[in-house]
Amino acid sequence: MMKTYAIPSVQSEFKLREKAEQVVGEEKSLSHSVEAAVRNCVLLRKGEAEFVARGMKSLASARRSGEYVNASEVMRRLKAKLESAKRN
After folding, report:
1. What span, in angstroms and rounded, lies between the C-alpha atoms of 62 and 81?
2. DSSP state of 7
3. What pTM does this model have?
4. What mean pLDDT is predicted for residues 40-58?
5. What phi and psi values does residue 58 have, to the nearest 5 degrees?
6. CB atoms inside a 10 Å sphere around CB 20
7. Secondary structure, 3-state, 13-32
8. Rounded distance, CA 59 to CA 65, Å?
9. How far apart are CA 20 and CA 28, in angstroms?
10. By the 8 A CB rule, do 35 and 9 touch?
11. Is the pLDDT reported for residue 8 higher than 80?
12. How far is 46 from 39, CA to CA, in rounded Å?
């Protein structure tokens, strides 16, 4: 079993806590919702960092090779993919 650790408490206005408790409902606790929010934030930030890293790697590769794809060509390809997805 994995050891658990406490996430630091969050100071907030009373009204925010009250609204949060209203939307959480009876099945879940506010602390479960805070944990879920932290997990989602971690995944989002990790995904953003990986996206930026891939972009920087691609930029470095394009600079080395001198091969770039024109922005209008990228947009044309994306629109074609979107239209294809809409048809299917």
Report:
1. 23
2. P
3. 0.66
4. 98
5. -65, -40
6. 15
7. CHHHHHHHHHHHCCCCCHHH
8. 10
9. 11
10. no
11. yes
12. 11
